[in-house]
Automatic annotation (TrEMBL):
Gene Ontology biological-process entries: intracellular sterol transport; regulation of plasma membrane sterol distribution; sphingolipid metabolic process; sterol metabolic process
Protein function: Mediator of sterol homeostasis involved in sterol uptake, trafficking and distribution into membranes.
Keyword Transport tagged: yes
Cellular localization per UniProt: Endoplasmic reticulum membrane
UniProt-recorded name of the protein: Protein ARV
Transmembrane parts of this sequence: 85-106, 118-141, 148-169, 175-194
Family the entry assigns: Belongs to the ARV1 family.
GO cellular component, one term: endoplasmic reticulum membrane
Topology of the protein relative to the lipid bilayer: Multi-pass membrane protein
Tagged with keyword Cytoplasm: no
Keyword terms of this UniProt record: Endoplasmic reticulum, Lipid metabolism, Lipid transport, Membrane, Transmembrane, Transmembrane helix, Transport
Amino acid sequence: KSCQKPVDKYIEYDPVIILINAILCKAQAYRHIIFNTKINIHGKLCVFCLLCEAYLRWLQLQDSSQNIDPDDLIRYAKEWDFYRMFGIASLEQTSFLLGIFTTLWWMTPEMLKTKSDFVLLLKALLLSSYGKLLLIPAVIWEHDYTPLCLAFIKVFVLISNSQAIRVTLNLNRLLPWLAILIGLILENGVVCLFQKMGWDV
């Protein structure tokens, strides 16, 4: 009231500008999206990102690349390896999030007091994983630099996750990265476990 200006400048901005600023990982854009919008696609976005990841892993399996007809829908429906890859991707995502939540709860218990705090952070993390949608174009336009593109996508998603944690809990830069590192260690532990069981991951 004293300055006669909106606290959140993005309220007056076009959604395209907000999206561009979110892609640039600007904290104010993340704050606007997390706190001042009523986006309710967290679950759908999470499932779609997991499907993208499962599809990428499924394509990398040797058995899946033997059939050269990509329009064979019956073969896709019967391809159990895809569903297995979806389940593995889901477990890895769960362990990554569990690592983040455990670290943050242990380091800053005052920030995560109520169930709504956990839910808000979960929604922010799921929304900030939108970069995984880039996996599909990276696979469709396959070229010699595809592994490098996939590495860049992973880094982008981790930076987005870090910004989401930082904005949601109002933390400095170090603690979100520590939580993400623990989450990655837990996720890689799940990967190693599946590899020891003889599963292709």
